[in-house]
Amino acid sequence: MMNSNFAVGSNLKSNNGIRVRPKVNWLRIGIHVLGLYPLAELVFLYFSDQLTVNPIQFVEQFLGRAALNLLLVTLSITPFITVTGWKQPGKHRRALGLYSFLYFALHFVTFAGIDYGLDFKEIIRLTAEKPFIFVGAFAGLILLILSITSFKFWMKRLGKNWKRLHKFVYLVGGLVILHYAWAIKGSLTTMSGDIIRPLLMGSLLSLLMFLRIPLIRKRIIALRMKKRNGPENL
Ligand code: HEM
Fold it and tell me: Is the shortest distance between the CB of 139 and ligand 1 below 6 Å?
């Protein structure tokens, strides 16, 4: 006999024989749509011949920005939970972080494999000459370690140290903003080049870090509870 819990068509049969529709996890779908959107956009731009006259540079920059955007979305989950009290997005933090890593990996492959044809001598020379690449590589290395250790196996193995290790994600954020601002060849003093975008990203990162300060977090939670319960119930 087949297990009575086995899926029948799109429905599941519960133990008492009643058919139960499996719940659609819209949040999970939304997270994957968000994570795969840049890739879909890039494929669309490729097939519609919109990768500009310098496609390798365009793709490299596009993937770098996608990695940074998704990193910031990942970092905004905890402050979002603090402000709204809705805990479900917390379950998808790892997926978002891994998407960020995926785009970084593709950014690196475009740089080292396609742009420089895996000429590591040239890559090392360039890294020594352009410190923004060194900063990116440092951020990328930490991101790699965080991605590998983001799974349950490592969570159990590292115990309390896991949380400590994963706080380094903020350092990655800071390093990547620096990498970005440095890479675009703009100037902070004259506000030239496209310096506004990294500045905005940097401000967002600072705000997210500010919202994580334990005292600020406690205040926000207390304010939210007060609003929910009404001042008379406190
Ligand atoms: C080994 C590590 C890395 C290398 C070798 C690298 C290399 C580069 C290079 C060469 C550029 C300049 C592209 C150009 O303007 O022609 C760049 C820009 C950029 N990278 Fe990286 N990168 C690394 C790590 C990262 C990481 C970890 C992130 C984000 C998570 C990132 C995000 C960006 C961003 C946002 C830009 C600016 C894109 C723009 O100009 O719009 N990079 N990177």
Answer: yes
